[in-house]
Task: inverse folding
């Protein structure tokens, strides 16, 4: 498991990536400076610099609040703050270890994601 920090303004949120091929591929991109925006009042999304390797990932995933995921068809990062239906092409990367209130902002806002070690 890989621990990461999601930095929003002056707040640092703790999260843990799964021990999977796709999560390790995501970790190889870190640190990342991204702009998150809201999508369907369910998730925060941001474009990644490249698509991740999902060759060993399941075909679909049912996200819950706090999940960090990759939506393979669009190549983006999706952080769910509400649960959602099973979605083909959605791959779990990890989850937040605690509250993620700092992400509950309107409009687009910058975040930095980096390795905690």
Result:
């Amino acid at each position: 498991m890989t621990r990461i920090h999601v930095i929003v303004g002056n707040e640092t949120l703790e999260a843990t990536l799964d021990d999977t091929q796709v999560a390790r591929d995501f970790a190889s991109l870190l640190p990342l400076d991204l702009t998150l925006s809201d999508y369907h009042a369910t998730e925060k999304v941001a474009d990644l610099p490249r698509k991740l390797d999902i060759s060993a990932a399941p075909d679909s995933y049912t996200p819950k609040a706090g999940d960090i995921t990759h939506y393979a068809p669009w190549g983006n990062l999706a952080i769910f703050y509400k649960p959602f239906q099973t979605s083909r092409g959605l791959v779990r990367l990890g989850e937040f270890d605690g509250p993620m209130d700092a992400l509950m902002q309107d409009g687009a806002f910058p975040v930095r994601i980096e390795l905690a070690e």
